[in-house]
């Protein structure tokens, strides 16, 4: 499919950040650190912390660090999800964190199928092939 091709191209040219650590922390998204936050896309300070899975999964995103720091302009764009770029970015981050989560569970000894079940039980939707 055309969109799959676009996504494949994107993956080749865009390195992912390291996964965030998952040590216990407060259930707030770290708004107070805003002046020190750097937008992952533009490198500008004053970035906002964006949860990758919103709605009912927002708290889960905060708990597990499924987040990215982005400047207000890009933040608004990701939430609007109204253009091809933002749709790809939103999908990319969801795929990235699902994969990181499942890989972590497998490193801890879980079978791939079990890891997928655990993801589905938590988030309710599969973003990976
Ligand atoms: Zn957000």
Largest sheet: 2 strands, antiparallel
- What is the CA-CA span between the terminal residues? 13 Å
Strand order of the largest sheet: 1-2
- Can you tell me the overall shape? globular
Give the % helix.
40-55%
Small molecules bound in the structure, each named once: zinc ion
Please count the helical segments: 5
Sheet-strand content, in percent, reads: 5-15%
Helix-and-strand structural type: mainly alpha
Whole-number radius of gyration? 15 Å
Low-confidence stretches: none
Order of helices and strands: HEHEHHH
What's the total count of β strands? 2
Q: Any idea how many domains? A: 1
* Mean pLDDT over the full residue set: 86
Question: In a nutshell, what does this entry contain?
Answer:
By secondary structure, the protein is mainly alpha-helical. It is 50% helix and 6% strand.
């Amino acid at each position: 499919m055309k969109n799959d091709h676009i996504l494949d191209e994107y993956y080749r040219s865009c390195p992912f950040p390291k996964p965030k650590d998952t040590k216990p922390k407060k259930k707030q998204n770290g708004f107070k650190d805003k002046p020190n936050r750097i937008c992952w896309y533009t490198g500008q300070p004053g970035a906002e912390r964006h949860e990758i899975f919103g709605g009912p999964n927002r708290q889960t995103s905060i708990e597990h660090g499924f987040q990215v720091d982005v400047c207000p302009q890009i933040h608004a764009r990701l939430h609007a999800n109204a253009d091809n770029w933002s749709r790809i970015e939103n999908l990319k981050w969801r795929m990235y964190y699902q994969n990181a989560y499942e890989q972590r569970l497998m490193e801890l000894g879980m079978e791939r199928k079990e890891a997928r079940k655990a993801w589905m039980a938590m988030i309710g939707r599969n973003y990976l092939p």
